[in-house]
Amino acid sequence: MASVETAAEHERILREIESTDTNCIGPTLRSVYDGQEHGLFMEKLDARIRNHDREIEKMCNHHFQGFVDSITELLKVRGEAQKLKSQVIETNVRLQEDGKVLIGSMEQLKQCRVQQRNIATTVDKLAHCLPVLEMYSRLQEQMRAKRYYPALRTLEQLEHTCLPRAGQYRFCSIMAENIPKLRIHIRETAMTQLRDFLESIRKHSDKIGETAIKQAQLQRSLDSSVTLQPRALIGRRGRKEAAMVTESSGEGSSPLSEQDSGILDVEDEEEEDVPGAQDLVDFSPVYRCLHIYTVLGLRDVFENYYRKQRRKQARLVLQPHSNMHETLEGYRRYFNQIVGFFVVEDHILHTTQGLVNRAYVEELWELALSKIIAALRTHSSYCDDPDLVLDLKNLIVLFADTLQGYGFPVSQLFDMLLEMREQYGEILLKRWNITFRQILDQDNFSPIPVSTEQEYRQYTSQFPLQDPELEKLSFPKKLPFSEFVPKAYCQLKEFIYACLKYSEDLHLSSTEIDDMIRKSTNLLLTRTLSNCLQYAIKKKNVGLAELVQVIINTTHLEQSCHFLEEFITNITNVPPETANATKLYGTATFKDARHAAEAEIYTSLNAKIDQFLQLADYDWMSAAQSSGGLTTSDYLVDLITFLRSTFSVFTNLPGKVAQTACMSACKHISTSLMQLLLDPEVRQISIGALHQLNVDLKECESFARASPVAGFQGDTLLLAFSDLRQLLDLFTQWDWSTYLADYGKSTCKYLRVNPHTALALLEKMKETSRKNVVLAQFKKADRDRQKLIDAVIKQLRNLIAQHHA
Predict the structure, then answer these.
(1) Cα(537)–Cα(214) distance, rounded to whole angstroms?
(2) Cβ contact 754:677 at 8 Å
(3) What is the pLDDT of residues 334-361, one digit of tens each?
(4) How many CB atoms lie under 10 A from the CB of residue 79?
(5) Secondary structure of residue 479 in the 3-state scheme
(6) At what angle do helices 530-538 and 544-559 cross, to 10 degrees?
(7) Among residues 769, 646, 624, 759, which one has the least CA distance to residue 694?
(8) Which InterPro entries match (predicted)?
(9) DSSP class of residue 480?
């Protein structure tokens, strides 16, 4: 059984060897040698080889006859081939002999064709080289003539068109090597011309600005109803821009020709008498340089360089001189340079395409505007001359109008002018303060005498006096006020005119102008004039007559306030009843001054009374005398005489003022006499001293009954002495029973007597009585009087205690 399996395995391996690639039989043979029957396998392999050899032999025997037949036929073909070869060689020899003449002719034809081609090539090369030489010659001529922009165009055409066509020749290489050098030369020459141009416009900025401002001033002088071209200095601009568009839109033409690239076309002089920026400065270098750098592909470099240099020039132009504020000419030069700078930039903006754009110009203007405003604020703050401030304002307005004509926003300048308006107002107030003080110092504080109609009309033309009764009087006569009134009124109008001058040309409405004038006038009235009047009133050594005249003056000035209102209305054409219209505070100002003068009169009068009262020399321990033997004190006689003369001067004062002064004087006398009685230094008072004081009080009451000032009803003036009168009556009549019984009742005879006052006076009389009792212990009347005083004092204290409880 095992031998059968081995035989089958060997058969399988042999079939695998026969059918498998020889590269893959290694594993198969290894399996044979791994087994124990490899000898048997070798026998079977030899048997299989012998079988295959027998099969090969059988196949060869089967095909041998066909092979022999094929060899026989091949030997026959070889003989025929030898014959054919001999015939071909013979035919070739004959052909070579026959073609020698033709080959010679073909060689000659070939040589002719080569020569013909060389001639054509030479002609073609010469056709390409001649334009190069001609163009290079033209380039040299343009360079010698300094026509750099056409030279640059020729150079570009030579480099990109002609030289590539000409081919690689030595002269072409030399030309190609020179092209970058020529470009650098043209670029450097153009830049040099640009620097010269920048220096030129820096020098000419002042002149350009002056010309622009002059033309703007000329335009302002024209009729405002005529519609004018918004930009005064660019009357030629529209035509030049049209020319620029036409030139730049032309096919194959340069943006500007070499000769007039600065747009220096001169138009008919009758169109524009005042030269513009293009007439004062040759702009051709900047345009030429712009076109050259554009062709060179360096336009951005040129634009950046130009803008950088102009910014540097702007900073120099915007830097004011340190002493600019001293004269108007300094401001004028400053503004001329700025206007000239921006006129040039505006011209460049509108005559080039992109060298400067609107955003760049606006940015430059914003920078300039901030620096201009800062410089003007700083330098104008040093100015204390209103005329110079007014001239500066007019110059700023002209400066702003000029630049506004070029499209620059100038609202901030006008806002700054409104700020300067405050400063101008303060300077005016200082000047008018000096003026008013000078008028007051020079015033004699007395009515103005007029002897002729002409003098009268002269004063009434200066001040609106309306007094029919005064007009009826014959000459000579006196105006009620002093010289201060017409002079002050004229100065008020001058101040209003000065305010109006500043408000002109600020593009303000009539209402705004009216409001500004009224507010400034109110400041003049409430601050400056009021302070000056207070200065005059509070001045040392001012007399009552002067104070009276001040009251009369302020009364007339107060009455003239509505004429000032009408004056402002006439010059501003804004009625005072307009909504939100500012009212003049003149009435209140003059009322306050008058009240201050009245108070000063009262104070001065009381001070004078105090001077007389200081002369009072009462003997507080004098013995009692009969009333017939007593006379009025000398100091009081002098005081009454002074009061009568003083009140006679008050006839021109308003009745209420005179009455108040008189009442104040009487009250002050009464209070002062009361203080003399209650003076702590006076420790003892006799009844005799009270009788003397009673006589003096009667003299005062007599003065009051005589009505030194008209207007008092009945015995109103006597009420000033009622407190002292009731006190003296109580003590001289010794009517204590009535006082104590009726105290607190409205019908009390001694209603104005204060129990504290009465107690203090009794204490002083008690001291006197006690001293008399000590000296005269045996007089029963004195002892009884002392007891009576003690009893009254005790009752008064009880009364005070009850009232307090």
Answers:
(1) 52
(2) no
(3) 889 899 888 888 888 888 887 888 888 8
(4) 8
(5) strand
(6) 160
(7) 624
(8) EXOC6/Sec15 (IPR007225), EXOC6/Sec15_C (IPR046361), EXOC6/Sec15_C_dom1 (IPR042045), EXOC6_Sec15_N (IPR048359), EXOC6PINT-1/Sec15/Tip20_C_dom2 (IPR042044)
(9) S
